[in-house]
Amino acid sequence: MKFKLPFIPMKIATYNVNGVNGRLPVLLRWLEETTPNVVCLQELKAPQEKFPEQAILDAGYNAIWHGQKSWNGVAILARNMEIKELKRGLPGDPDDDHSRYIEALVNGVVIGCLYLPNGNPAPGPKFDYKLRWFERLTIHAASLLATGMPVVLAGDYNVIPTELDAYKPERWVEDALFRPETRAAFKTLVAQGWTDAIRKLYPDQKIYTFYDYFRNAYGRDAGLRIDHFLLSPQLDGRLIAGGVNRDVRGWEKTSDHAPVWIELKD
Protein backbone atom coordinates (compact mmCIF):
# COMPACT_ATOMS: atom_id res chain seq x y z
CA MET A 1 0.00 0.00 0.00
CA LYS A 2 1.33 3.44 -0.93
CA PHE A 3 0.67 6.64 0.97
CA LYS A 4 0.94 10.00 -0.71
CA LEU A 5 2.28 13.05 1.12
CA PRO A 6 0.90 16.57 0.57
CA PHE A 7 1.40 18.24 -2.80
CA ILE A 8 3.29 21.05 -1.06
CA PRO A 9 6.12 20.72 1.47
CA MET A 10 4.71 19.77 4.86
CA LYS A 11 6.20 21.79 7.68
CA ILE A 12 5.97 20.04 11.05
CA ALA A 13 7.05 21.64 14.31
CA THR A 14 7.46 20.53 17.91
CA TYR A 15 7.37 22.93 20.82
CA ASN A 16 7.44 22.39 24.57
CA VAL A 17 5.39 25.45 25.53
CA ASN A 18 5.91 25.07 29.31
CA GLY A 19 2.31 26.09 30.05
CA VAL A 20 -0.05 26.62 27.13
CA ASN A 21 -2.21 29.25 28.81
CA GLY A 22 0.56 31.24 30.46
CA ARG A 23 2.55 31.28 27.20
CA LEU A 24 -0.44 31.64 24.86
CA PRO A 25 0.60 35.05 23.45
CA VAL A 26 4.03 33.60 22.60
CA LEU A 27 2.48 30.51 21.00
CA LEU A 28 0.02 32.54 18.90
CA ARG A 29 2.72 34.97 17.77
CA TRP A 30 4.98 32.10 16.75
CA LEU A 31 2.16 30.34 14.86
CA GLU A 32 1.35 33.53 12.98
CA GLU A 33 4.98 34.24 12.06
CA THR A 34 6.00 30.71 11.01
CA THR A 35 2.71 29.00 9.93
CA PRO A 36 3.70 25.34 10.32
CA ASN A 37 1.23 22.84 8.88
CA VAL A 38 1.36 20.56 11.92
CA VAL A 39 2.48 21.34 15.47
CA CYS A 40 3.21 18.99 18.38
CA LEU A 41 2.97 20.71 21.76
CA GLN A 42 4.23 19.40 25.09
CA GLU A 43 3.93 20.40 28.74
CA LEU A 44 0.51 22.02 28.38
CA LYS A 45 0.16 22.14 32.18
CA ALA A 46 -3.61 22.44 31.76
CA PRO A 47 -6.53 20.09 32.44
CA GLN A 48 -8.53 18.90 29.46
CA GLU A 49 -11.24 21.55 29.84
CA LYS A 50 -8.76 24.44 30.14
CA PHE A 51 -7.04 23.99 26.77
CA PRO A 52 -7.42 27.27 24.79
CA GLU A 53 -9.23 25.64 21.88
CA GLN A 54 -10.98 28.76 20.62
CA ALA A 55 -7.78 30.81 20.46
CA ILE A 56 -6.12 27.99 18.54
CA LEU A 57 -9.08 27.74 16.16
CA ASP A 58 -9.01 31.49 15.62
CA ALA A 59 -5.35 31.14 14.68
CA GLY A 60 -6.36 28.74 11.89
CA TYR A 61 -5.58 25.41 13.58
CA ASN A 62 -7.65 22.38 14.47
CA ALA A 63 -6.46 20.64 17.61
CA ILE A 64 -6.61 17.48 19.66
CA TRP A 65 -5.10 17.37 23.13
CA HIS A 66 -4.54 15.19 26.17
CA GLY A 67 -4.46 17.49 29.17
CA GLN A 68 -3.55 17.08 32.82
CA LYS A 69 -3.88 19.45 35.73
CA SER A 70 -0.65 21.29 36.61
CA TRP A 71 1.70 18.92 34.78
CA ASN A 72 2.43 17.20 31.47
CA GLY A 73 -0.09 17.42 28.62
CA VAL A 74 0.39 17.03 24.86
CA ALA A 75 -1.45 18.33 21.79
CA ILE A 76 -1.39 18.12 18.01
CA LEU A 77 -2.44 21.13 15.90
CA ALA A 78 -3.09 21.10 12.15
CA ARG A 79 -3.49 24.15 9.95
CA ASN A 80 -6.58 23.85 7.74
CA MET A 81 -6.37 20.05 7.87
CA GLU A 82 -8.37 17.31 9.54
CA ILE A 83 -6.83 15.51 12.52
CA LYS A 84 -7.90 11.92 13.04
CA GLU A 85 -6.95 10.83 16.55
CA LEU A 86 -5.46 7.33 16.65
CA LYS A 87 -4.24 6.93 20.21
CA ARG A 88 -4.29 8.75 23.52
CA GLY A 89 -1.68 7.56 26.00
CA LEU A 90 1.24 5.24 25.41
CA PRO A 91 0.33 1.53 25.44
CA GLY A 92 1.88 -0.91 27.87
CA ASP A 93 0.86 0.32 31.33
CA PRO A 94 -2.85 0.81 32.08
CA ASP A 95 -1.97 2.34 35.46
CA ASP A 96 0.10 5.15 33.96
CA ASP A 97 -2.07 8.27 34.20
CA HIS A 98 0.50 10.77 32.90
CA SER A 99 -0.63 12.71 29.82
CA ARG A 100 2.51 12.22 27.77
CA TYR A 101 1.50 10.79 24.39
CA ILE A 102 -1.06 11.46 21.68
CA GLU A 103 -1.13 10.11 18.13
CA ALA A 104 -3.04 11.16 15.04
CA LEU A 105 -3.28 10.80 11.27
CA VAL A 106 -2.81 14.11 9.49
CA ASN A 107 -2.76 14.25 5.69
CA GLY A 108 -1.66 10.65 5.36
CA VAL A 109 1.13 10.88 7.94
CA VAL A 110 1.00 9.33 11.42
CA ILE A 111 2.10 11.93 13.96
CA GLY A 112 3.11 10.79 17.42
CA CYS A 113 3.54 13.66 19.88
CA LEU A 114 5.41 12.71 23.04
CA TYR A 115 6.73 14.16 26.27
CA LEU A 116 9.18 11.66 27.69
CA PRO A 117 9.72 11.78 31.48
CA ASN A 118 12.59 13.88 32.79
CA GLY A 119 13.76 11.18 35.19
CA ASN A 120 15.59 13.28 37.77
CA PRO A 121 16.84 12.68 40.36
CA ALA A 122 18.76 9.69 39.05
CA PRO A 123 19.10 7.01 40.15
CA GLY A 124 15.70 6.70 41.78
CA PRO A 125 12.00 5.97 41.15
CA LYS A 126 11.60 8.82 38.65
CA PHE A 127 14.53 7.54 36.61
CA ASP A 128 13.12 4.00 36.73
CA TYR A 129 9.82 5.36 35.39
CA LYS A 130 11.66 7.18 32.61
CA LEU A 131 13.36 3.96 31.48
CA ARG A 132 10.13 1.96 31.66
CA TRP A 133 8.37 4.62 29.60
CA PHE A 134 11.22 4.50 27.09
CA GLU A 135 10.80 0.72 26.79
CA ARG A 136 7.09 1.13 26.11
CA LEU A 137 7.81 3.81 23.50
CA THR A 138 10.33 1.53 21.79
CA ILE A 139 7.81 -1.31 21.61
CA HIS A 140 5.10 0.97 20.24
CA ALA A 141 7.52 2.55 17.76
CA ALA A 142 8.34 -0.91 16.37
CA SER A 143 4.64 -1.57 15.85
CA LEU A 144 4.30 1.72 13.98
CA LEU A 145 7.20 0.82 11.69
CA ALA A 146 5.56 -2.53 10.99
CA THR A 147 2.50 -0.80 9.53
CA GLY A 148 4.51 0.61 6.62
CA MET A 149 2.88 4.00 7.17
CA PRO A 150 4.89 7.23 7.06
CA VAL A 151 5.42 8.15 10.73
CA VAL A 152 6.86 11.11 12.62
CA LEU A 153 7.60 10.78 16.34
CA ALA A 154 8.16 14.32 17.60
CA GLY A 155 8.49 15.95 20.96
CA ASP A 156 10.50 16.59 24.07
CA TYR A 157 12.43 13.37 24.56
CA ASN A 158 14.39 14.65 27.57
CA VAL A 159 17.42 12.93 26.04
CA ILE A 160 20.81 14.43 25.22
CA PRO A 161 21.90 11.83 22.64
CA THR A 162 25.62 12.70 22.38
CA GLU A 163 28.23 15.11 23.73
CA LEU A 164 27.64 17.29 20.67
CA ASP A 165 24.13 17.92 21.95
CA ALA A 166 25.14 19.67 25.17
CA TYR A 167 27.06 22.78 26.11
CA LYS A 168 29.80 21.49 28.45
CA PRO A 169 28.57 17.88 28.46
CA GLU A 170 30.82 17.01 31.40
CA ARG A 171 28.37 18.90 33.61
CA TRP A 172 25.54 16.54 32.65
CA VAL A 173 27.19 13.19 33.29
CA GLU A 174 24.99 12.30 36.29
CA ASP A 175 21.82 13.89 34.94
CA ALA A 176 18.93 11.63 33.87
CA LEU A 177 18.94 13.26 30.42
CA PHE A 178 22.52 12.19 29.73
CA ARG A 179 23.09 9.05 31.78
CA PRO A 180 24.37 6.05 29.78
CA GLU A 181 21.08 4.19 30.24
CA THR A 182 19.13 7.08 28.70
CA ARG A 183 21.44 7.48 25.74
CA ALA A 184 21.46 3.73 25.18
CA ALA A 185 17.66 3.66 25.16
CA PHE A 186 17.52 6.43 22.57
CA LYS A 187 20.14 4.68 20.45
CA THR A 188 18.15 1.43 20.60
CA LEU A 189 15.01 3.25 19.51
CA VAL A 190 16.69 4.98 16.56
CA ALA A 191 18.35 1.70 15.52
CA GLN A 192 14.93 0.24 14.70
CA GLY A 193 15.12 2.22 11.48
CA TRP A 194 14.28 5.79 12.48
CA THR A 195 16.06 8.90 11.23
CA ASP A 196 17.04 11.61 13.73
CA ALA A 197 15.98 14.40 11.37
CA ILE A 198 17.80 17.38 12.88
CA ARG A 199 21.05 15.46 13.28
CA LYS A 200 20.80 14.25 9.68
CA LEU A 201 20.50 17.85 8.50
CA TYR A 202 23.24 19.11 10.83
CA PRO A 203 25.59 16.15 11.34
CA ASP A 204 28.48 18.06 12.89
CA GLN A 205 26.94 21.27 14.19
CA LYS A 206 26.03 22.26 17.72
CA ILE A 207 22.31 22.94 17.62
CA TYR A 208 20.30 23.47 20.80
CA THR A 209 16.56 23.38 21.52
CA PHE A 210 16.52 24.11 25.27
CA TYR A 211 18.06 26.87 27.34
CA ASP A 212 17.70 26.96 31.13
CA TYR A 213 16.24 30.09 32.70
CA PHE A 214 19.26 30.36 34.99
CA ARG A 215 22.77 31.74 34.49
CA ASN A 216 21.87 33.54 31.25
CA ALA A 217 21.97 30.23 29.38
CA TYR A 218 20.25 31.63 26.30
CA GLY A 219 22.50 34.66 26.10
CA ARG A 220 25.59 32.45 26.39
CA ASP A 221 24.21 29.87 23.92
CA ALA A 222 24.63 27.29 26.70
CA GLY A 223 21.93 24.88 25.61
CA LEU A 224 20.88 21.29 25.06
CA ARG A 225 19.34 19.41 22.15
CA ILE A 226 16.52 17.41 23.73
CA ASP A 227 13.58 18.00 21.35
CA HIS A 228 13.74 15.53 18.48
CA PHE A 229 12.06 14.33 15.29
CA LEU A 230 12.31 10.65 14.43
CA LEU A 231 11.20 9.78 10.89
CA SER A 232 10.20 6.39 9.55
CA PRO A 233 12.03 5.11 6.44
CA GLN A 234 9.17 6.27 4.20
CA LEU A 235 9.98 9.88 5.12
CA ASP A 236 13.77 9.82 5.29
CA GLY A 237 14.24 10.75 1.64
CA ARG A 238 11.58 13.44 1.82
CA LEU A 239 13.32 15.52 4.48
CA ILE A 240 14.44 18.75 2.82
CA ALA A 241 14.91 21.27 5.63
CA GLY A 242 14.72 21.85 9.36
CA GLY A 243 15.98 23.98 12.19
CA VAL A 244 15.29 25.73 15.47
CA ASN A 245 13.40 29.01 15.89
CA ARG A 246 16.03 30.06 18.39
CA ASP A 247 14.90 33.68 18.59
CA VAL A 248 11.57 32.62 20.14
CA ARG A 249 13.51 31.57 23.23
CA GLY A 250 14.49 35.24 23.64
CA TRP A 251 10.93 36.58 23.58
CA GLU A 252 9.29 37.96 26.73
CA LYS A 253 7.57 35.39 28.99
CA THR A 254 8.66 32.57 26.72
CA SER A 255 9.25 28.85 27.30
CA ASP A 256 12.70 27.50 28.16
CA HIS A 257 12.44 25.46 24.94
CA ALA A 258 12.62 26.84 21.41
CA PRO A 259 10.36 25.50 18.65
CA VAL A 260 11.97 22.98 16.32
CA TRP A 261 10.75 22.30 12.78
CA ILE A 262 11.29 20.15 9.71
CA GLU A 263 9.98 20.24 6.14
CA LEU A 264 8.96 17.15 4.19
CA LYS A 265 8.57 17.23 0.42
CA ASP A 266 6.51 14.91 -1.75
Automatic annotation (TrEMBL):
It holds the Pfam family Exo_endo_phos. Coiled coil: none annotated. Probably binds two magnesium or manganese ions per subunit. InterPro entries: AP_endonuc_1, Endo/exonu/phosph_ase_sf, Endo/exonuclease/phosphatase, ExoIII-like. The record marks 227 as: Important for catalytic activity. The record marks 257 as: Interaction with DNA substrate. Residues 13-257 form the Endonuclease/exonuclease/phosphatase domain. NCBIfam families: exoDNase_III, xth. Belongs to the DNA repair enzymes AP/ExoA family. This is Endonuclease/exonuclease/phosphatase domain-containing protein. It comes from Mucilaginibacter polytrichastri.
